[in-house]
Input
Amino acid sequence: MSTFELVCVTHRGLCPGDLPQRAAALCRGGVGRVILREKDLPEQDYEALARQVLAACGDRLVLHHFPALCAKLALPRLHLSLGALEQNPALRAQVELLGVSVHAPEEARLAQALGADYVTAGHVFATDCKKGLPGRGLPWLERVVEAVSIPVYAIGGICPDNLAAVARTGAAGACLMSSLMRCPDPEFAVRELLACL
Output
């Protein structure tokens, strides 16, 4: 099995300082990918931020929900909702790396059938991002992993206390948002997480 990978999903609203600088520090710490989520930004503003984060993290950056920018920025890495890929399956041919967010084993199978290279599956544990909703749990994550042959990345409430248990499900990695956006020392936080494995 390949090395368990940590992925940062950005949310600049949670980040007390400069997001590109934080992304660079996370990469220095050992984050494998940075998914630039920022769903509230119009495309022009998203592009400006993406250029800054691209300069900070290079090819670890994955764009989110603006496929036209992949060609414009010469960055053929894209993450989408399953619905967006279903509406436009031709996007598969336009990028080299395609990730899809899923919330059930059958959704993971559909994403794989549509050509996804990996899926993010959640939310596994209770999280502030989904207030009041219980996590789906580790047995659920195992079912998603077993449903597909592509890598599955857990998301939702991942922390040092549960990271090793997530890795034992067969997941290829874990996505973190709030903790990596808020932590005072991003580089140290990633190293600490990796040490839990």
Notes: The radius of gyration is 16 Å. The beta strands are 5-9, 33-35, 61-64, 77-81, 97-102, 118-122, 152-155, 173-176.
